[in-house]
Specification:
Layout: E1 3-10, E2 19-25, E3 31-39, H1 46-63, H2 71-91, E4 98-107, E5 110-116, E6 120-125, E7 129-133, E8 138-141, E9 144-147, E10 151-152, E11 162-167, E12 173-177, H3 179-182, H4 187-194, H5 200-214, E13 219-226
Antiparallel strand pairs: 1-13, 2-3, 3-4, 4-5, 4-10, 5-11, 6-7, 6-12, 8-9, 12-13
Helix pairs in contact: 1-2
Length: 227
């Protein structure tokens, strides 16, 4: 299968961008990988946490190209990312920092989707509409949304990914995004624009406009189309 994609990552109305994304495109045979991470607000060095975890997962994938995608592979990659985060925290005087993560790995005609936290994946199918959406790992605490699963320094017990696998069809579109994107527009607008008969970059331009107009956070998205 051929994969087209486009991506954005913007600071928005914040002072710095604590999101990070990585894409591995066609370097390792019939495989493709994208990871989006969103550094935890309210804690120090979110941009370091998101970069560390996204890099660690990509590095694990590159180092294990002979291993088929599976739940075990995702869990091992997340364990490596957790160790990398702890090591980075050690280098910053045991800093408390964290990040969410969502990823999609395509191997042949199968996609493996995993997430920790409230960064999301949407999978839309031309003949079925919304086929799959990740469920946020959040709880309400005195009226505030609190992320209860994430990568957080020295807390490996909360870095627990949800993992699913699907067979892909030609025409499928997959959106990976941080919460700054989907919270900036009504859900029906996000889903309708995702399936517009336009180039992927043009769809992301619409998201960019809506996020800057309505949002107050960093926003990142990788939009994928299966050919």
């Amino acid at each position: 299968m051929k994969i087209n994609y486009a991506a954005i990552s913007e600071t928005g109305k914040r002072r710095n961008n604590e999101d990070a994304f990585r894409v591995v495109d066609g370097e390792y045979g019939n495989r493709w990988l994208a990871v989006v991470c969103d550094g935890m607000g309210g804690h120090a060095m979110g941009e370091v946490a998101s970069e560390t975890v996204s890099n660690a997962i990509v590095d694990y994938w590159k180092e294990h190209t002979n291993e088929p995608d599976s739940e075990e592979k995702v869990k091992n990659a997340c364990a490596d990312a957790m160790m990398a985060l702890d090591k980075k925290a050690d280098s910053f005087s045991h800093c408390e920092m964290g990040t969410t993560m969502v990823m999609a790995s395509v191997e042949g005609d199968t996609v493996t989707i995993a997430h920790v936290g409230d960064s999301r994946c949407y999978l839309q199918r031309t003949d079925e509409g919304l086929f799959y959406q990740t469920k946020d790992h959040v709880r309400l605490d005195f009226g505030w949304e609190v992320v209860d699963r994430c990568f957080f320094s020295y807390q490996p017990e909360v870095a627990l990914p949800d993992i699913v696998q699907f067979r892909l069809k030609a025409g499928d579109r997959i959106l990976l995004c941080s919460d700054g994107l989907y919270k900036s527009m009504p859900p029906e607008i996000l889903k309708e624009r995702m399936m517009d008969d336009k180039p992927l970059a043009d769809i992301l331009d619409v998201y960019d406009f809506l996020c800057y107009k309505n949002g107050d956070d960093n926003y990142t998205a990788v939009l994928i189309e299966i050919k």
